[in-house]
Design goal:
Elements (H helix, E strand, L loop, with lengths): L2 E5 L2 E4 L4 E8 L4 E9 L6 E8 L2 E4 L7 E6 L4 E6 L8 E8 L10 E2 L3 E6 L1
Parallel strand pairs: 2-11
Antiparallel strand pairs: 1-3, 3-8, 4-5, 4-9, 5-6, 7-8, 9-10, 9-11
Length: 119
């Protein structure tokens, strides 16, 4: 069983930065882990993924601004978000599965952390 706890959300002005953290309990080494966001009235969007020993991918909407990383010693997943835009506003969830699922059908989810970007 894996539990995920996110932190680091908050309110910032456009152009600002935030770093989200997700502490995992249980075995997640080599798991597929991701940050998934959901804005009010919109579908969930998988913004960044990290797999295995560190292969990463980010959505086109955040490419060049967001970076996903993982500290295996601390069992912690990060999302560094720079040059934030109002459209980045939403609830950000940490998600994990033993292997990458289709879409965002991850097995384990955190409770989410809110990010609000004002113009």
């Amino acid at each position: 069983q894996v539990q995920l706890v996110e932190s680091g959300g908050g309110s910032v002005q456009a152009g600002g930065s935030l770093r989200l953290s997700c502490v995992a309990s249980g075995y997640t080494f080599r798991y597929c882990m991701a940050w998934v966001r959901q804005a009010p009235g919109k579908e969930r969007e998988k913004v960044a993924v990290i797999v295995g020993l560190g292969s990463t991918g980010v959505a086109g909407s955040v490419k060049g601004r967001f970076t996903i990383s993982k500290d295996n010693a601390k069992n912690t997943l990060y999302l560094q978000m720079n040059s934030l835009k109002p459209e980045d506003t939403g609830m950000y969830y940490c998600a994990a599965s033993p292997s990458c699922p289709g879409g965002d059908d991850f097995r384990y989810w955190g409770q989410g952390t809110q990010v609000t970007v004002s113009s």
